Amino acid sequence: MSLRSYSAFGSNFKNRHNFANSSNRSSYSSIHSYTKSEQYWWNYTDNAKGTNFQRAVSGDKRPRFEDDTWDLADSLADLYLKVNEENIATASKFTVCKDPVNDIDVKKWIEEDTSHGFIRVFVPNGNINSSRLVPCNLSTNTQRICAQCGVAHSSLHVQFNGDIIARMESTDHPLAIQNEFLGNLGYTEPRKIQEEGYNPDLSYLIKFYLGKPVQDSTFTKAQLSSVILVRKGKLIYQWVQRLCAISGTRLFIHRDKFPSSKKSIMQLAKGYVEEVKFKDHPNVLKLTITLHGERSIYLSFTNTITYSKWLKRVQKATAKLPTKADLSKCNLEFLPDTIFINEDLRTLNLRHNVLKERPLEEDIHTMGWLDDLPRYV
């Protein structure tokens, strides 16, 4: 079986890889509204009624973010945290799985047929010592290799020349892609191409991962957390002590005073903040949340320093959102949900990502797919 007969496999993947890095990038790197000023790309139902607050900032009079570009580091940190959790699970399965190369004679496998070869797979953020050689042939697809390694069929990723990391489809043929890549570099002898498959230095040119590495540690949550008194309304509800945290435009309220407890998440964007006073509670912030219906939360502070810190953070969280966002070079497969709450967003940079379209079997109510952005011609 010749290498040439399987070159189409690599071409198909390369075309799809190029599409993810050029076609999608050019279509979505700059998005501008073509509708009237009162219309937006997407709409969330907002049943909030106008309410006058003593010191609230409302409507278009709300201050804008200090920076013209929207800081989405908090949302990106959540996405990366989820990826890291998946990587840990994948790495543990990969470690306990039996190494298939121990059951095969490398030289004998190569000599049997020119369609035979090896790919080297790495765990995310792992080194050469944690990698594994996987024997396969030109017709071996991604799903079978993942099964050999004991991981989910969609776990395999590929990286060319240290560039963007793309998830491989279950029907892709990794060895055919690797061989075609080497052929494009000038390798012409089938035996030499086969031998390069088990050369450790090949990983500097093409690298397969079981999982998606997250090497950028700059996206961290800048949380402000405190144990404070919380009240959900003026009537009936009592003050209760809860661990609360604010990160970006989201408020987290735990069920008790411990960070391990279950928490509810409230989106403060498009909301309002007001300084109010209650009997025996001189430092109180009233947060009015307007997404999906209006409701209010009261936060009471015993420490004026903590109160001042929270006031500043909440004011920023409820400020008018910027019209620009830059998510370039974030190696994203999905968009953070926070993007879709900003109806004023006019420019969104998505260069150097690998955004995915929603599969037919996927729930239509999930957000973050490439399809969720409008198409502009």
TrEMBL record:
Pfam annotation, one family: RA_3
Annotated GO MF terms: metal ion binding
UniProt domain PHLPP-like RA: residue ranges: 119-209
Keywords from the named record: Metal-binding
InterPro entries registered for this protein in UniProt: PH-like_dom_sf, RA_PHLPP-like
Protein name, entry field: PHLPP-like RA domain-containing protein
Lineage: Eukaryota, Metazoa, Spiralia, Lophotrochozoa, Mollusca
